[in-house]
Design brief:
The chain folds into three domains: 14-74, no CATH class; 77-282 and 408-428, no CATH class; 289-397, Lipocalin, CATH 2.40.128. The chain is built from eight helices and 24 strands. The protein has helices at 3-6, 10-28, 32-39, 44-49, 55-61, 64-74, 124-127, 241-246, and strands spanning 79-85, 101-105, 131-137, 140-145, 153-157, 162-165, 176-186, 196-206, 219-226, 231-238, 258-260, 263-267, 274-278, 283-287, 302-307, 310-317, 322-328, 334-341, 346-347, 357-362, 369-374, 379-384, 389-391, 409-414. The protein has a five-stranded mixed β-sheet with strand order 19-23-22-21-20, with no helix packed on it.
């Protein structure tokens, strides 16, 4: 924000006060309860924008009480969308992450231009760059300017178009596994600056290079950014052989962590398991894959994701041509939820070739649905485990993926109320 954006001359300030007085004078006679009862009847985006009407509106709408009333009134169920790579580029053979990102959805709220992340192109320099989608959690998105050096990360809310740029990480390494976790916290404080606090962390794990002078042998290097401190911190962790081997290879398709129960989970090319990091206590561990899984497998024949608060893993076995879906229970054991032979899968779409399907992700909200990508028809397909039926999702836009490799795929769940992008303390 420039200085001219916050400085006014006397006449402009008078006009601003007059506008605020006119716009809020009718509501000044109403109690807070009546104002809230009025505002909760608005759609979610206009209701959030009403914070700009007056200080009183900002304070009321920012309160946890308003959010609870709004959610209860609309009986909101979370909406979701799918960010995906839609078109290949020359760089796809070298850096698949530089491909353009598109979005598929069933809910009209995602028609907002902001969900294309185009609002981040706020300068001539950024307009020439490719914005790389990295991860999302609780309504916020982590992305970066794909070709800029040093690396610049952005955290944004595609609905409200709020965004901030993070300071550069300690190292300029691009080939990293990334994790992003956001914790929106509500409080009963009516001060509009303190009514809601959001905290997030960004975690970078470098791909292991035994010859790297920056990384001692037998260690994993984690670079962690915390929005509360506003700085990056480096950690060199002594790792077991299996943990160290997890990051010997680069899984271009799954560089970002799956967030489940407040823990980050990375699926790598190794057959050692799933690496986890708990940002609350800094604990790292490895979860073994189901014993039936034999890796490495073709990249598009397995996937890791979260559905309804549970971690799920799915894969296709060439040995018996069966798809299997497992869920991790509270005891840390994999439970087989579904097993289906390729011939048992029914289809409502003639253009779907079941032999050319690749796994993308579990549905984040519907426990029965898992998403596939059909290479022959370039379509996203949903499979219902209950009735064993393949069909095209009810997307409002035509979702086509043209790629030589299995595309990167990011489920995005919109929370019941927009998550505020916090100010970074060291930058405020």
């Amino acid at each position: 924000m420039t200085e001219s954006d916050v400085m006014f001359d006397g006449s402009s300030l008078t006009k601003q006060r007059n506008v605020e007085s006119v716009s809020s004078s009718g509501f000044d006679k109403l109690t807070d309860e009546l104002v809230i009862e009025t505002l909760i009847r608005l759609p979610i985006k206009p209701a959030n924008f009403c914070k700009c009407v007056s200080r009183r509106f900002h304070s009321l709408i920012s309160s946890s009480y308003f959010v609870r009333c709004y959610v209860n009134h609309h009986q909101i169920n979370n909406s979701f969308a799918l960010y995906y790579q839609s078109k290949p580029t020359f760089h796809n053979l070298i850096r698949p992450s530089l491909m353009g990102i598109d979005i598929a959805f069933e809910f009209p709220i995602f028609e907002s231009p902001g969900f294309s992340l185009s609002f981040l192109a706020c300068s001539d320099q950024q307009k020439q760059e490719t914005l790389q989608y990295l991860a999302s959690n609780n309504g916020l998105v982590l992305c970066c300017a794909a070709l800029r050096r040093p690396i610049v990360y952005f955290v944004c809310n595609p609905l409200t178009k709020q965004w901030i740029a993070l300071p550069p990480p300690p190292s300029n390494v691009k080939t990293v596994y990334i994790g992003f976790i956001c914790n929106p916290q509500y409080s009963c404080n009516t001060d509009h600056e303190q009514g809601r606090k959001t905290r997030f962390k960004v975690v970078r794990i470098e791909v292991v290079n035994c010859d790297s002078p920056r990384q001692p042998s037998g260690t994993l290097k984690l670079e962690i950014f915390c929005s509360v401190s506003g700085i990056w911190t480096e950690y060199f962790m002594s790792s077991s052989t299996s943990d160290h081997e997890l990051f010997n290879g680069w899984n271009y398709r799954c560089p970002s962590a799956v967030v489940c129960d407040g823990i980050l989970h990375w699926d790598t090319l190794s057959n050692c398991g799933i690496f986890t990091y708990d940002p609350s206590n800094g604990e790292c561990k490895t979860i073994e894959l189901p014993h039936e899984v034999r890796k490495p497998v073709w990249a598009f024949k397995y996937c890791l994701g979260e559905s309804g608060g549970r971690l799920r893993y799915a894969n296709f076995s060439w040995d018996d041509t069966n798809y299997r879906v497992w869920e991790l229970n509270n005891g840390g054991e994999w439970l087989l939820l579904h097993k289906v032979h390729l011939d048992e899968m029914k289809s409502t779409v003639q253009t779907i070739n079941k032999d050319c399907m690749g796994l993308l992700s579990p549905h984040p909200l519907n426990h029965d649905i898992i998403f596939f990508w059909c290479r022959s028809s370039c379509r996203i397909v949903e499979y219902n485990m209950e009735n064993k039926l393949l069909k095209l999702p009810c997307f409002l836009r035509d979702a086509r993926i043209i790629s030589l490799l299995s595309p990167m795929f990011f489920p995005f769940v919109l929370p019941c109320w927009p998550t505020t992008v916090p100010l970074i303390q060291s930058m405020a």
